[in-house]
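Still learning folds. Look over my entry:

…
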Amino acid sequence: MSADCLFCKIIAGDIPSNKVFEDEDLFAFRDINPAAPVHILLIPKRHLSAIDKAVTADELLLGKLLLRASIIARDEKLDEGFRLVINTGKHSGRTIFHLHLHILGGRAMGPLG
């Protein structure tokens, strides 16, 4: 945990959230500023600042992150499709430096690029 990290404070319960899922490694909650009808953030409980800071020892956690994202999408009835997004680096537009995966769905997302 990082004392000055917003997501670490949410995990600790210091800041309220609309929790969707929690286990010993991961925490998921609804985004307070959704970009789609379903917009859930899935984060590791251990503070990891970005995907490009991950190391081989994080392999299992990252796999669990992706698998859980798929399960959450299924639970949210995103049968028509969904998008997973991980922003990294200064040009990505991220504002919170704790690895987080966006699960977006509930409408046609349109092409990227």
